[in-house]
Amino acid sequence: MKNVATFKEKSRMNFNQLSDIIGKTHRYLQNNAIKAINRNLTIRNWLIGYYIVEFEQNGEDRAVYGERLLKILEKRMNDSGLNETLFYWSRKFYTSYPSVGNLISATLSQILKELPREISATVSQKLIVRTRDSILETFCL
Fold it and tell me: What is the pTM of this model?
């Protein structure tokens, strides 16, 4: 932010400069916040899709839920933001773009470290191996 340096250099400013620098600071940081939120929601949705696909393929009691999995999951979660539609599109996002894990691997590693141990322990090893395999496939094709 060049404007902060300009502000420090000027010991006196007028009202127009004050309002200008506050506006520029606000817009710059607000845009960064929006980008961070979008990035985090993308990662969240990709991970939700990953979890669902993993369960559908390897879950020990997956046969019990079958095609009703997403609806039952919505009822179990009981959270207005976590619903069947989100689960459906997250699964579709993951299956359409499994290599997103490659693009966000550093961020993903950090998120997995921050997750409760019982969650990250069950997911991280499979995800890391799968991500590495995807990287190899991408470069070998």
Answer: 0.66
